[in-house]
Design a protein that fits this description.
mainly alpha, single chain
Length: 82
């Protein structure tokens, strides 16, 4: 695996994990008991904690990338005929 394909695999894994972690811990103003201000959406999260999710996503994507790198570079998983 060259460095370009390694970066592409990491970016794809990062975005997949990021979109999976976005809904965790999100609460709407109605669940918290706050009043929605005029002009704001009723479903807008109160505290989305995006930077925490970015950090968690980076760690999980790095682990998954390491597993993918091992599987691709080793002969354990190969789609080529011997």
């Amino acid at each position: 695996m060259n460095w370009v394909s390694a970066i592409v695999v990491y970016v794809i894994l990062w975005w997949l994990v990021f979109f999976m972690t976005l809904p965790f811990g999100v609460k709407s103003p109605h669940e918290v008991g706050e009043v929605v201000e005029p002009g704001n959406s009723d479903g807008a999260p109160v505290n989305p904690r995006v930077w925490l999710k970015v950090g968690i996503t980076t760690a999980i994507a790095a682990v998954l990338w390491g597993i993918a790198y091992y599987l691709i570079t080793s002969d354990l998983l190969s789609f080529r005929r011997p």
